[in-house]
Each structure stands twice: as structure tokens, then as C-alpha cells.
């Protein structure tokens, strides 16, 4: 008889929808799926890889298709934001709605990260 209890195996389900250049100094990256401990390295490398080497780029991270976000993913977003800010760039989170917006709010990150709230809150 198998047990339904036990450790949850972390699997990376991050999907990068694409990096779109919106101007010479603004990059847009759309993330999708579950942002968790299994995808932290990919989140950081994708986001930092989308910006200029001198970190002066403005980065827009589209979270519309993100279905789950844990504290390790929040940490990755804070890390990327700090790196960009130190280099003179900026990071903005777009389309953070529903559960994702709630996680950012509960973590106290709405005052730390630039978060564009949807015009109609799905909560």
C-alpha cells in the first residue's frame, strides 16, 4: 500500500515565454508556470541574461501566466532587482494578479519591488 504522505519532489515547471526588446534600454520577459526552488537558477539566469552586461537596462517581468510562486522565487526576484538597481537599471513586475499578487503582498514586497497592479484585481 502506497502512502500519499511524503516529501514533495521539486520539479522545474518554469517556462520562459520570450524576451522581447521594447526599446534599446527596455527588455520584457514573460514567465509562465510554477516559480519555485527548482526554477530559481533559471529565473535568475533568464532575467539577468535579458539585460545589458552593465545592468543599466530597464526590465519588465510579465507574470500573467505564473500559476505559483514560493519564497525562493521571491528571493530570486529581489536578487535580480538589487543587481539592476545597483547597476542603474530598474525592474518592474507586470500583470501580477490573483494569487501571485497576494503572495507579493503577504511577503511585504509591494513596497520593495515595482509592481504594476492589474486594473481589475482578481482576488
The overall pLDDT, averaged over residues, is 82
Number of helices: 3
- List the secondary-structure elements in sequence, H or E: EEHEHEHE
In helices, the fraction of residues equals 25-40%
Major sheet: order of its strands?
A: 1-2-3-4-5
What structural class is derived from the secondary structure elements? alpha/beta
Low-confidence stretches: 5-12
What gyration radius follows from the Cα positions, in whole Å? 15 Å
What general form does the structure show? globular
N-to-C CA distance: 40 Å
The major pleated sheet works out as:
5 strands, mixed
Count the beta strands: 5
Strand content is: 25-35%
Tell me the quaternary state. single chain
Your description of this structure?
Strand 1 (13-21) and strand 2 form a beta hairpin. Helix 1 packs parallel to helix 2. The protein is globular. The model is unreliable at 5-12 (pLDDT under 50). It has 123 residues and is α/β, with parallel strands linked by helices. The protein has three helices and five strands. The protein has a five-stranded mixed β-sheet with strand order 1-2-3-4-5, with helices on both faces. The longest helix is centred in the middle third of the chain and has 17 residues, at 71-87. It has helices spanning 40-49, 71-87, 98-106; strands at 13-21, 26-35, 58-69, 90-94, 114-115. 29% of the residues lie in helices and 31% in strands.
Describe, in short, the structure shown.
With 123 residues, this protein is an alpha/beta fold.
Secondary-structure topology with pairs:
Blueprint: E1 13-21, E2 26-35, H1 40-49, E3 58-69, H2 71-87, E4 90-94, H3 98-106, E5 114-115
Parallel strand pairs: 2-3, 3-4, 4-5
Antiparallel strand pairs: 1-2
Amino acid at each position: 500500500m502506497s502512502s500519499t504522505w511524503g516529501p514533495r519532489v521539486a520539479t522545474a515547471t518554469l517556462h520562459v515565454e520570450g524576451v522581447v526588446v521594447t526599446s534599446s534600454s527596455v527588455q520584457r520577459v514573460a514567465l509562465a508556470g510554477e516559480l519555485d526552488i527548482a526554477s530559481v537558477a533559471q529565473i535568475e539566469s533568464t532575467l539577468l541574461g535579458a539585460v545589458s552586461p552593465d545592468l543599466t537596462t530597464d526590465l519588465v517581468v510579465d507574470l500573467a501566466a505564473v500559476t505559483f510562486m514560493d519564497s525562493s522565487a521571491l528571493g530570486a526576484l529581489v536578487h535580480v532587482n538589487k543587481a539592476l538597481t545597483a547597476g542603474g537599471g530598474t525592474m518592474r513586475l507586470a500583470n501580477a494578479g490573483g494569487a501571485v499578487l497576494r503572495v507579493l503582498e503577504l511577503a511585504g514586497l509591494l513596497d520593495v519591488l515595482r509592481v504594476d497592479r492589474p486594473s481589475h484585481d482578481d482576488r
